[in-house]
Amino acid sequence: MAKKTIADINVKGKKVFMRVDFNVPLDENCNITSDKRIVAALPSIKKVLADGGSLILASHLGRPDGKPDPKASMKPVAKKLSELLGKEVIFANDCVGPDPQAKAKALKPGDVLLLENVRFHKEEEIKDKKTKDDPALRKAKDDFAKQMADLADVYVNDAFGTAHRDNASMYTVPAMMKGKPRVIGYLVEKELKFLGDTVSNPVRPFVAILGGAKVSDKLGVIENLMTKVNKIIIGGAMAYTFAKANGKTVGNSLCEDDFLAKAKELQEKAKAAKCELLLPIDDVVAKEFKAGAENKVVTGNIEAGWQGMDIGPATRKLFAEKLVGAKTIVWNGPMGVFEMPPFDEGTKAVAQAVADATSKGAKSIIGGGDSASALKKLGLDKKVTHISTGGGASLEFLEGKKFVCL
User: Fold this and answer.
1) pLDDT tens string 351-392
2) How would DSSP label each residue in 286-311?
3) Mode of pairing for the β-strands spanning 363-366 and 328-332
């Protein structure tokens, strides 16, 4: 997992192209509602500036579908970053073309330039596998990437949230900078340390908690982890596919009938791997999918007209007990519809159990996304060891996939 970082190179007098993840949430007036992702990149940014380099920052924001969209502009990010750094951040009105070229050329040591949203160009997201069979697409992607590569002397990847994607700014730009230093930033280094070391060399007992809606989203993760962990706890709507595979009725609950055989197979594989796979023993069910809907707790079968919304009180107690004594915990995905009270109680209980285990010495790694949102909402985000900045990236990492950008 060892990678060269910005601490290993000399950037004095050099222009540094840093791919960051500034995909921040915006309100309807384009005001930033959370600057967490910008703050997370500050250590790498400040390191380059302190060492006498100048910075060219690139990021995506939202899904503008390959064309300019004022609602996805990086301008609010430039303003926020200026405030956080206490100095002006120069803004380029595009990521390629005359304006960024002129502004990058004029940079002095200590200057910071933020490029406009890289996803304003369709070439950013052309999949690399498509370019292998289409010379025109490959040339378009290469030409787009080369314009950014030519702006700088050094490439730094500090965007873990998109490290699993072969986007031009993540993959093709550094490929175009062959012969120049190409390293990772402190944020990516931290993610690789926590996720990589945790999965490769865990202190046992090692427990994985997996939730969310679909078994299909977590198949690879379950299969990869069952040979590494002592226990896998499964909650969320994905548990109903397992329940139906085991012969129970699930009413109107979300269930992937195409994966019933796979759910059965996964349980057999876990047993063979001597990995304890734990499923809910009771559920909170409701007739309507809305906050405050009429609900009840059921054990076993869920009758027609009712749908599972959360793990039940007995399951909360069981899952919390299974976390007692754990030394390593990985959690990805909520236990129920945590955005809607009272169906957030299961996620709350698991979050508290993870925090309690952490206070007793466990290393707890939260895989971003909804799990991170739930912890923050409950005020427990400071009570765990590490929260990943990349939900999708952390999930693919846990699945054992190789990242082309790292």
Assistant:
1) 999 999 999 999 999 986 788 888 888 899 899 999 888 777
2) ESSSSTT--EEEESS-B-TT-EEEEE
3) parallel
Beta pairing partners, 352? none
Residues 6+ apart with CB under 8 A from 402: none
Q: Is 74 exposed, middle or buried (0-12, 13-18, 19+ CB in 10 A)?
A: buried
DSSP-assigned beta bridge partners for residue 364: 329
54-85 tens-digit pLDDT: 999 999 999 999 999 999 999 999 999 999 99
Nearest to residue 50, comparing CAs of 90, 87, 105? 87
The CATH homologous superfamily of the domain defined by 202-398: Phosphoglycerate kinase, N-terminal domain (3.40.50.1260)
Sequence spans of domains, the chain: 6-189, 202-398
What is the layout of strands, in order, in the sheet containing 276-278? 276-278, 231-234, 206-210, 328-332, 363-366, 386-387
What is the distance between the alpha carbons of residues 164 and 140, in angstroms, rounded to a whole number?
21
Catalytic residues: 37, 214, 369, 392
Instruction: Note the CATH number of domain 6-189.
Output: 3.40.50.1260
